Amino acid sequence: MDAITLLKNDHRKVEKIFSDIEKGNGNRKQLFTELATELTVHAEIEEQLFYPAAKDAEPTRDLVLESYEEHKQVKMVLSDLEQADMNTDTWLAGLKVLMEDVQHHVGEEEKELFPKVKSKVLSKEQLDDLGQRMEAMKIERLAASKRR
Ligand SMILES: [Fe+2]
Ligand SMILES: [Fe+2]
Prior knowledge:
Layout: H1 3-23, H2 28-55, H3 61-83, H4 89-121, H5 124-147
């Protein structure tokens, strides 16, 4: 799978978990644990593999720097939510903020960063190769998180 398809699939998965939590489709704690794992592993493969591949290219440099900062913000809100009592309206309000932050960030990636990477920075072969490495890292990190 090429790198961009892999990342977009992750984005859709995370959106589905957000909407399940909001609608009460399932156990909140379980869904949130899954959400936190997905977001953390996704951010990690982007930061370790995808962003570095686009960081030094002029067309995408600024977008990548902004993306690292947006990840920091998402991780802060996520860790606040992990500490807080999940059965309160305050927690749900925080979840909404997290969802909006993630939506904004995903929108920038999909509307600006990914198209530029695809058209100006990485070849199809490079995207395929990167995708394979990202998939391997993802499998490894997800397995590690289950052992914890
Ligand atoms: Fe990202
Ligand atoms: Fe992403």
